[in-house]
TrEMBL record:
InterPro entries per record: KFase/CYL, KFase_sf
Signal peptide feature range: none
Descriptive protein name: Cyclase family protein
Biased composition annotated in UniProt, kind: Polar residues: 1-20
Organism field: Arthrobacter humicola
Amino acid sequence: MTAQDISPATISATGESATASPVIRREDPLGSIRAMAAAHNNWGRWGADDVLGTLNFIDAAKRIEAAALVKTGEAFSLSQPFDTNGPQKGWRRRTNPVHTMTDTGVDAERGNQGFPHGFGGADDVIAMPLQCSTQWDGLGHIFDQGKAWNGRAAGDVVTSEGDLVTGIETAAAKIVTRGVLLDVGRALGPEMGRSDGELPDGFAITPEHLQRTIELQGPSSRVGRGDIVVIRTGQHTRVRRDGWGDYAGGSAPGLSFSTAPWLHRSEIAGIATDTWGFEVRPNEFEGAFQPLHQIAIPNLGLFLGEMWDPDGLAEACAADGRYDFLLSAAPLPITGAVGSPVNPIAVR
């Protein structure tokens, strides 16, 4: 099926296409995962010692290309807030940030801070899991059959001391490149009979859906080597309006397992979504947990962003038809971390 073949009749409310994907054998989850990993794998592509994975696709020429996209100087933060009202519910000890003031204006007024000549100040501290809100998954975050990125033994990479090889600090200066927004919710909505720009929970975004979105949005949506793709499903729009509900770990629109070949072939540097878990939930295999992660991170070396908020950017892109931009999305260089909070900035 080509992008041109997609029509309201071939896109269902659950994201199923008219033709079943040959890479999703629902009766054989493990076999499907192993076959996909064998067919789409970047181990050794940048040498045995590589720690960057697909970030290797970002080079100086790519950054120069991205800088030339700035026309108006508009800047958009693609981050959700980091506060106690966030989406987390405590699964696997993932909690929302706890922000505590250690010095305040009250202390300054009372003169009990110990500073001379009327000097006063405020200080604060935050405690949070590194993947509680807008974040990058690092290359040490997910393993496949006991293997980490580039075929290393998982236990040799991540220990109680952290990620000793591919810690997120290795990416600290790398993620400045061309970004491309694929507003799948808005683009495909009319063909699904929806006018809200939001994909329903459980909608599996296939390669055909991605190509159709690119076609509908126009030439500025082309996706190529070294780009970071930002997917808007509209789920974050929905939960911001209706409440978090089961946003963290519940049903969600997202990438189908069948997109793994597209992710590999496109040679993108990273991909981010406005959902908690990047891929469609419930997952497409009975009893599976995040099988596309299992391909993307340890086998492709692909950086995944989750819980991004592209809504403001999406409005601007829809208004003038320009869907590419300069993206700066540096992780915090937390030594040995397998993920990092991020405040991605899109500049148009």
